[in-house]
UniProtKB/TrEMBL annotation:
This is Uncharacterized protein. The lineage of its organism: Eukaryota, Fungi, Dikarya, Ascomycota, Pezizomycotina. InterPro entries: ClpP/crotonase-like_dom_sf, Enoyl-CoA_hydra/iso. One of its GO terms (biological process) is fatty acid beta-oxidation. Keywords: Signal, Virulence. GO terms for molecular function: catalytic activity.
Length: 316
């Protein structure tokens, strides 16, 4: 009897897990819908081993976002009203932009032009900033650099016990382009200076205290169930509750001009020898072009490890 129960619950857990991918899939992004008239959409991001924001992942994400307005309900409103962005991997939410793309085009990325991939990443951020749906980040893993930029461009952030966030950019002398303006409006200039210039990481509990995320839950199950019920509550209200409030809240900034000014600064810095040296040392510290995309202690503890590339004995 107990054995049967155990077997059944293992099966049920598995079924629930595979259910998460039973909607439409966009490459590395599986989706499923639930709630009133299936108007809440949950994503399950799987670009193993580290959910690196590489070229294909960026295109998958853009394809997914561009699909959101495609189906309308009986009122002519988008049928998906609330979107939960979550990872399928236990240790990573979304990791950094593929930093190999900051090198001159070479065989590693099939001679792809990194500047153009970066511009596509900014198209992705613009979509998150302009689509009418409510975007909720459910962060329960590593969200460094690109990962943190993406959650900053969503509307709300909820964090679980695995969450660790931050911006390594200043280790290379550049800014957390695309994320720093939203972060500053959330946590204020004092904390923004503290975390952005030092590249220190932040975990869920502290992030919730200073407003980097909305709430922290110390169990992953509690995180998911609270996010689901919050999303369902909102999806059962009139659609204009989302659009009218979002429009008013967005007036507090940052504006597109503020964000674009940061991109200009980023481009003026990224070709400097010191920045290129940083990328070379970063890749060497990560084990080289191939080993870089691995779930290693270096990758998990990136913001603790990366500043060591400037230690006196580091070699390039
Ligand atoms: C769900 O859709 C039906 C018809 O398509 C509509 O009558 C109903 O009001 C919708 N429910 C909600 C909560 O939007
Ligand atoms: C999605 O639809 C809204 C109107 O509901 C519109 O304002 C917006 O421009 C559309 N966005 C995209 C990317 O199609
Ligand atoms: C990594 O790849 C880049 C671009 O293909 C190349 O220039 C660089 O020499 C490679 N580095 C190593 C350590 O192989
Ligand atoms: C990469 O793309 C950018 C933007 O389109 C362009 O300005 C630059 O010249 C390209 N670089 C190379 C090496 O082709």
């Amino acid at each position: 009897m107990y054995l049967l129960l155990w077997v059944w619950s293992a099966f049920a857990a598995h079924f629930q897990f595979t259910q998460a991918g039973n909607g439409k899939s966009f490459g590395s992004i599986a989706t499923s819908t639930f709630g009133p008239n299936d108007s809440v959409l949950r994503t399950s991001i799987s670009n193993p081993p580290i959910n690196l924001a590489d070229q294909q992942f960026i295109e998958d994400f853009i394809g997914f976002l561009e699909s959101l307005n495609n189906t309308l309900d009986h009122n002519g409103d988008p049928s998906v009203k609330v979107v939960i962005i979550a990872s399928a991997l236990p240790t990573y939410f979304i990791d950094t932009f593929d930093i190999r793309l900051f090198q001159a085009p070479g065989p590693i990325n099939n001679y792809v032009n990194g500047t153009e991939v970066l511009m596509r990443f900014w198209v992705l951020q613009d979509l998150l900033n302009t689509l009418p749906q409510l975007f909720i980040a459910e962060v329960d893993g590593v969200a460094y650099a690109a990962g943190n930029e993406l959650i900053m461009n969503m509307d709300l952030r909820f964090a679980g016990p695995g969450s660790i966030m931050g911006a390594p950019e200043s280790v290379c002398g550049v800014l957390h382009v695309g994320g720093i303006q939203h972060l500053t409006s959330l946590i204020g200039p004092g904390y923004a200076n503290q975390y952005m210039i030092s590249a220190l990481p932040i975990t869920g509990p502290r992030a919730a205290e200073i407003g980097w995320v909305n709430e922290y839950y110390d169990s992953s199950e509690e995180l998911t169930s609270n996010v689901n019920s919050f999303a369902t509550r909102i999806a059962s209200l009139p659609w204009t509750a989302i659009t009218s409030n979002k429009d008013a809240i967005r007036l507090s900034g940052p504006t597109k001009e503020d964000i674009d000014a940061g991109k200009k600064v980023f481009f003026s810095l990224v070709t400097l020898p010191i920045v290129q040296e940083c990328v070379t040392r970063w890749l060497a510290a990560a084990g080289g072009n191939d080993t870089y995309v691995s779930d290693t202690a270096f990758q998990r503890n990136l913001l603790t490890e990366l500043p060591k590339i400037w230690a006196a004995n580091a070699t390039s």
